[in-house]
Amino acid sequence: MRHAEFIAVTEDAATGFAMLLGSADLETPVPTCPGWSLAQLAEHLGGVHRWARAQLLAGGAQVDEQAADAPLSDQQALAAWFREGATALVETLRELPEDAPCWALYPPARASTWAKRQALETTLHLWDATEALGIAVPIPSRIAAAGVAEVANDMYPRQVALGRMPSLDAVVVFRLKDAAGVEDATARPVIRLRAVGELGEASAGAPTPADATLEVSAQDALLLLWKRRDLATVDARLAGSRDTLERVLSHPLVP
User: Fold this and answer.
1) How many CB atoms lie within 10 A of CB 243?
2) Which residues pair with 213 in a beta bridge?
3) CATH 3.30.1050 residue ranges for the chain
4) 16 SS3 class
5) Would you say residue 114 has pLDDT above 90?
6) Which of 20, 58, 148, 229 has CA atoms 20 to 30 A from the CA of 124?
7) Pairing of the two strands 236-240 and 190-193
8) For the chain, what is the radius of gyration of the CA atoms?
9) In whole angstroms, what is the distance from residue 16 CA to residue 122 CA?
């Protein structure tokens, strides 16, 4: 997916989320974000949008932006607060060159990384909200495939580099059955999880045979990796070791 597409995804998902906030019960529990209500999910996502924008504007320095307190008890005010942060983020992403330098969670340290990260963050949390309300909106296969690739290539190596989990000692392959036409720098129809080097770089050499291969939709793969689903609740076909796959999925592959 291109930089402008990720920005458009963020804008569309944020618009949908804001619409929910204007009409849904803010006390609705969000089971896929344990312990949070819809209002608390909005506070989190609105804060992330403001924090990401602060990184974009800092010119390469990491900043700890403290978002203004969200008005959790006022439905229309919360929706307006959320919309304000999302709009500012989208406008900043559109104003900056995609290669503008900035601190980022993972390489490359430029604005395009935040466009991708915020598209995926906002899309996943929109799904969380709609799932909680019983109206789950499907995640388009192209954005879901980009999200699976982000976990394998960016989030998981970062977790290893930060000491939050060990490098994997097995190889798991995801074959995304609805992403056959997806093949670009951000996503592929076949995505591998494998060992990483000490600095989070992908191991060199010829591909190691897979210990487990899961044929699954891009959305279900993304939800598995972000622990929104488990193997018993997705439509998938497994070749290889189920025990190995479950062990890999049990790791904190994402923050």
Assistant:
1) 11
2) 173, 239
3) 141-250
4) helix
5) yes
6) 58
7) unpaired
8) 18
9) 10
CATH fit for domain 141-250, picks 3.10.350, 1.20.1050, 3.30.1050, 1.10.287: 3.30.1050
With beta carbons less than 8 A apart as the criterion, state whether 76 and 18 touch.
Answer: no
Residues constituting the chain: 255
Query: What is the edge-to-edge ordering of all strands in the sheet holding 212-216?
Result: 190-193, 172-176, 212-216, 236-240
Strand, coil or helix: 164: coil
Cα 18 to chain centroid distance, Å, stands at 19
pLDDT at residue 205, as a whole number: 52
Q: What is the C-alpha to C-alpha distance for residues 235 and 39, in angstroms, rounded to an integer?
A: 31
According to CATH, where is 1.20.120.450 located in the chain? 3-133
List the beta bridge partners of residue 29.
37
pTM: 0.92
The pLDDT tens digits of the residues spanning 180-222 come to 665 555 556 888 999 886 333 444 455 678 999 999 999 999 9
Q: Report the percentage of the chain scoring pLDDT > 70.
A: 91
Cα-Cα-Cα-Cα dihedral sign, residues 84, 89, 95, 101: positive
Under the phi-then-psi rule, with left for phi > 0, alpha for psi from -120 to 50, and beta for the rest, what region is 240?
A: left
Q: What is the pLDDT of residues 43-95, one digit of tens each?
A: 999 999 999 999 999 988 899 876 678 888 899 999 999 999 999 999 999 99
| CA dist 210 → 33, 34, 72, 108 (Å) | 31, 33, 47, 28
SS3 235: coil
